[in-house]
Amino acid sequence: MGLDSADSAAALNSQGIARSSGLPTAQLKHSLWATWSELAIEHEAAAWGARSRALSASGPADRSEPMEDEFRASLQAVTTAAFALDALHVPVKAIAERDGAGQAGSGPGRGARREAILREALKAVFLVGRLNNRWVREFKWLFNLRGGAVHYGESAEDPAPHPLGLSVSKAHSTYRAEAATRAVDLLMEVLHSAAEQPRPNLKDAVKWSADIKPSVRKLDELRARSQQTTDSS
């Protein structure tokens, strides 16, 4: 599963640049936020595919393997969605600094959490409006799960419920297909805002938003295909 190879250069916002000084050379620019987004979408689809296999299993014993597959795919969907937002912050911050938007508003204070820094950069460059109220909650949720995946403890814990009606470890209850979709929903909402709602007074933001629209459209198409494949399996 992935973006069509013929369109990958445009979809991933890669660009070749020829230098005129000295011998001709080529520079390549690749936007990793797009690659992380693609991976998040693929893992989300894999999580739901595993859930479907678990639901089709004849008994609890036969659900063990697909449940583990769902956990692994969901864990990767959540973390790669967070990585995509983290990678997106790099060009957004650069735009804010070039256009002077980095000084707009109070901004996050010293020692602010990573998700707050990302949200403030997005607010400075794009017209996020009321979305920011929900993003406060959703960014905190996503980056707590991302941090928890890295710093997860190994102490014994009480079993936790799973949508399949089973009691599982806290990790398996946390990183499940619903979490994968919640993470990718947030990611795609942010990407659509970035592609469609630049602050009109920031010329670099307007140009960058127009440049990334093909990438976001390709990600929408990939997610639609992934969901269709999962629904038909």
Note down, in words, how this protein is organized.
With 233 residues, the protein is mostly helical. It is 65% helix and 5% strand.
According to DSSP, the number of beta strands is: 4
What is the count of helical runs?
8
Task: Indicate the proportion of strand residues.
Answer: 5-15%
Q: Measure the end-to-end span.
A: 15 Å
Strand order of the largest sheet: 1-2
Rg over alpha carbons: 20 Å
Category from helices, strands and their pairing:
mainly alpha
| Series of secondary-structure elements, N-terminal to C-terminal | HEEHHHHEEHHH
Mean pLDDT: 85
Write out key terms for the chains shown.
233 residues; mainly alpha; two-stranded antiparallel ribbon; two-stranded antiparallel sheet; 8 helices; 5% strand
Summarize the structure.
The chain has 233 residues and is mostly helical. The protein has helices at residues 8-11, 32-56, 64-98, 114-125, 131-150, 170-174, 177-196, 203-232; strands at residues 15-18, 26-29, 160-161, 167-168.
Q: Any chance you could write out the topology, listing elements then pairs?
A:
Blueprint: H1 8-11, E1 15-18, E2 26-29, H2 32-56, H3 64-98, H4 114-125, H5 131-150, E3 160-161, E4 167-168, H6 170-174, H7 177-196, H8 203-232
Antiparallel strand pairs: 1-2, 3-4
